Amino acid sequence: MERDKLYSFLFILPSLILVLVFVYFFNLWTGFISLTDWSDIFTSYNLVGLKNYIELFQNLRFQISMRNTFIFTLLFLASSLVIGFLLAILLDQKIRGENVFRNIYLFPMAISFVVTGVVWRWILNPGTINNPVGLNQLLDKIGLSFLKSGWYTDPKIGIKAVVIAAVWQMSGYVMAMYLAGIRGIPNELFEAAQVDGANMRQVYWYIVLPLLRPITWGAVIILGHISLKIFDLVVAMTGAGAGFSCDVPALFMYDTTFRGNHFAEGAGIAIILLLMIGVLIIPYLRYSLKSEVKR
């Protein structure tokens, strides 16, 4: 028995060392750098305390990027969950060609956010007033020209245009999660509810949705994690945008660190992102752990 434990430990030891070095050590190192005055290409480890964090929260671009992240996260989560759930209900009706539709909805998951960003940059390119292109051209052709917009070039829309691309890519994934959950609910529950006089809307609202709560929380955690650290989609699609209307903390961190050589300030942004993700994930992990213990 002791030998088996030793072999098991030796088996996971390389992975454990890699995790300790490349995750925990470098997280601590980033935290240390954020407390220094390293602001150019020459290394400096002089401690300045929380000065970098105070200056960050006074930085207008950082404030805008945080506001954009809040808007993006809220719209992205709500839209992906609603669309994914509705698509799951649709496919659960045993419609003809279900496999085809399921593959179509899941297809965006097979491509990267970079490809998605490039494609939607073309689609939402507004063109000019006299020569609209992309979606604006389509709206013009079908007589809905009043819906034309500047999309990501319009500071009033900005990050909301990025939400459209992100929802297109991830709603199919949410659909797959919900569909698996719905298919796992016994048919007897549906039949019993209908015998009691409940219509399908009431069945899904009062029975299906409560039973799918763990899946919903799982989707919220996964999508929330993606939204808080979104970078590649924004870079490929819009960049910081007009008036930083599409800016996000990860992009600001990249510009600050690798273009401005303000390494301490960039490390501070990274730590703030880490804390934001931790605030989202840690409560869920604690909830999951308590649920496992109760079982």
Description:
Helix 7 (159-183) runs antiparallel to helix 10. The radius of gyration is 24 Å and the shape is flat. It has helices spanning 2-33, 51-57, 60-91, 98-106, 113-123, 134-141, 159-183, 187-195, 200-211, 213-228, 232-237, 249-259, 263-294. It is an all-alpha fold and 295 residues long. It contains 13 helices and no strands. 71% of the residues lie in helices and 0% in strands. The chain has a domain at 66-262: MetI-like (MetI-like fold), CATH 1.10.3720. The model has no long low-confidence stretch (mean pLDDT 87).
Work out the number of β strands. Answer: 0
Approximate strand percentage: under 5%
CATH fold naming of the domain at 66-262: MetI-like fold
**What does the oligomeric state look like here?**
single chain
Distance between the termini: 27 Å
> What's the gyration radius in Å?
24 Å
Task: Tell me which CATH architecture of the domain at 66-262 applies here.
Answer: Orthogonal Bundle
Low-confidence stretches: none
> CATH superfamily assignment of the domain at 66-262?
MetI-like
* H/I helix tally: 13
The ordered string of helix (H) and strand (E) elements is HHHHHHHHHHHHH
* Overall CATH class of the domain at 66-262: Mainly Alpha
